[in-house]
């Protein structure tokens, strides 16, 4: 007997038997091209580096395909090359740019459109980009596509034997310039809609200092310097047909607004002094509830820049409890009972992977194992505050609240203290009126 699982189930013809359906035809885009954008101001090693990405072009800018391209080398402070042992022995001198170097070079970024500020970050852009690349992508992506940005998958941070560290040593081993490129990871450029034509988009960048950007072993009293020799932007433009351009302009005049929904990632950090058993009370965000929060602890020495450490070495530091307070609620609902030395951490690891949507998923992962989370420099905690945190196609209801981070330790914090780096995601909206004036959503972060 043949029957349907349910009467509401409709008849379907599989694609292999469908001879009537044809692909659609592109009638909107005439041409697409990459354009090299040089510095608008005179080059200064310490910045600022300014770019005019559009220059009032009649073309439409494909924001997601905007890159900064750097050429750099590493020398001593006198400009001389420092030779490494060809075998990269553990006992010999070695050095490398820190992971994700193309994005880590960037300290602060501002974006102005038609002279109005639409994006400005704290000084933690390197952490924002590192969290995105580390947590979202698998090892295959990190070792292929992201290698253009100088990202190589580490199995252990600050360990000489890590293949990622050794590959980054090889980048600078031959005393030749290294070229890397990274997407500009800011809110408006992380969404898929193109930027309207006749906008003047100006990008201003300040770089991090060399102590933050270099990770070395057995350096002794040597001081190294990362020298950016050249920097330019690559933008991708669409030239549309006159018909679609006119229709878009007419729609803008009629509706008086075009909008760009997006996820805005805000990064904050706070200091935890030495010899403490808890973190000071810290209200990190004071406006609306985030969708997700990720946080990790790094030594104050590495956070402020030290050529013998990595700023991305996130450790437990004797943490016994971490939770988020907001709207009179606590996430998680009960305190995490952490004891890394006695292998009580798996709940935190599972929550981090669940917050990324990687658990029980055979199509994507971030290649962070439980062991790496425990003791290899990848102790990053993840919390879902929104019930639709993983669905970026939905807005969450706007809830006005303060968000606080609570941390308790079973042993005193180190002598020089710690920094807690916090990345939170918010729903955001940017609009443009018919005069191309940007309009930001009223609820600030």
From TrEMBL:
GO process annotations (BP): deoxyribonucleotide biosynthetic process
Record-level GO cellular component terms: cytosol
InterPro entries (UniProt xref): RNR_small_fam
Molecular function terms, GO-annotated: ribonucleoside-diphosphate reductase activity, thioredoxin disulfide as acceptor
Protein name stated in the entry: Uncharacterized protein
